[in-house]
Amino acid sequence: MFAAAIFALTMLYAPADWLRKWEKSIVESSRDRYCDKETGEELGWLISPFLSGYFYGYEATKDPQWIDRLVDWTDSLVSRKVKEPDGFEGWPKAADGGSVEESYFTDSLLGEAMAMKPVVLMSSEILRRTALKKIYGVKAKEYIALAERIFQKWDSRGCWRTCRDGGLWVVPEFGIDPKTNRWTSGYADREKNGFSNPANKENAIAEWMLAMYDATKRPVYRDRAAAWFRLMKGRIRTEEGGKYDVWDYWDPSGPWDYKPDGSTKHWVGVHPNGGYYQIDVDAIVDAYSHGLVFDRADIDRLTATNRDFMWNHQVEDAKFKRIDGGDPDPRWKNSPGVLWSALIVYDPTLRKVFEANCDPSSWGGLAATPWYLSTATSG
Predict the structure, then answer these.
(1) ∠ CA(366), CA(369), CA(374), 5° rounding?
(2) What's residue 95's pLDDT?
């Protein structure tokens, strides 16, 4: 409680015009209306930042316009779903199975999970508040029911796999044949084939699972998240005598992740895009706040990694190197590492870095700015 009070107090030193700048940015950017057109994985990368911004915008301001905007975008998304060969609904997008003959359409568990997370969070908030429930309660129940059907869809398609140290979700190796509107041949072996998602995608899905558990209290969602987090924690390596953490972008998890010659389907190592690791840390902090798998020692070690090893120790114009200290990749030369903003509630130094460098008008600021404001005011 004391830490929360101190965190809220320090918000007095954050720029006073953040909320105005953020609101102007998200309203103007919303005109692109990704909700009206995007499918597949882009539901996550292009639609979810707005849905998250609307959710946290409401949490920070209690202004119902942000609920209305989330409902508007969600309803547009829902109106475009199509029925697929197994009777479930989705937002399929053209994929390439390796040749013209193998081209097919497929929806994306990741995209749907990322989009549904803020919708489920907002729905839970609506159903907890009598005044909101009277206005939006029917919508909230419909959205949660949709999210549950999406879970059932991917579960029934054999995309959940149990591993020795936990469990994870795989990308299926089948889709919809556009010529016949039936499954491609890989559907018959759906329990055996597939490709394990990389850590950042698994973590984004796990955060959706936590939101689903909070909304429904169904143990299966918590159990699935916990199984992944156990696997994730087991893959984290410590360096410099246990001071810092490092982990790979992707690791093989079962026979489905190997080619016939025994080689892995993907390279194993640290990814040069630092943004992926921010997603990982977001999920780890979420797991910790739910009392799952990770403990305070894990949080402290992550904090030390980001603050003491990766950061250039300049509050203004802060820079972060790769989690493994490797050379920047030209493709992500400006973000080999990034601030792990989920940790700022635990560390005043990282909080100062966030306040000095957050741009409420940026793409990342769509969700990060209202999240920060909502976290401070909720203390």
Answers:
(1) 120
(2) 84
